[in-house]
Design brief:
five-stranded mixed β-sheet, flat, about 0% helix, Immunoglobulin-like, single chain, mainly beta
């Protein structure tokens, strides 16, 4: 199992085009920074982690997402969940919704990792 992408989004929808055909993923409002007018503030963004597995042997894994404040390296949240991609060769997604408190402008890193393989993607979220 590996992570194809990890990004903060406003919305995600899945549709088959044509009906019964291949699945399309409509991702809207992808972002890595956001405007904040008053501090402190707490944001609850949607983090989309898109996964894939090439073989039957690699279709199970644990998605571990740690939210780390970049300024001081403090881990402020964590999400772990086991996933199974069935059948292999397909894509799968996981939505994670953290609570991130910004005392001032700054960045949190969502460190997304597949525990079994170590495959890692980092998605930053900066409040400006």
């Amino acid at each position: 199992m590996e992570i194809v992408a990890a990004l903060f989004i406003d919305n995600v929808n899945f549709r088959q085009d044509p009906p019964g055909g291949p699945t399309r993923i409509d991702i809207t409002g992808a972002y890595f920074s956001t405007q904040v007018t008053d501090y402190p503030t707490t944001l609850t963004p949607h983090l989309l982690v898109l996964l894939r597995a090439e073989s039957d042997a690699g279709r199970q894994g644990t998605v571990d997402v740690r939210f780390v404040r970049r300024a001081d390296g403090e881990e402020v949240g964590r999400h772990r969940q086991t996933q199974t991609i069935s059948p292999p060769g397909q894509f799968f997604y996981q939505l994670v919704r953290p609570e991130l408190t910004f005392d001032t402008a700054g960045t949190f890193d969502a460190i997304c990792q597949i525990t079994e393989t170590g495959h890692t993607v980092i998605a930053p979220l900066t409040a400006v």
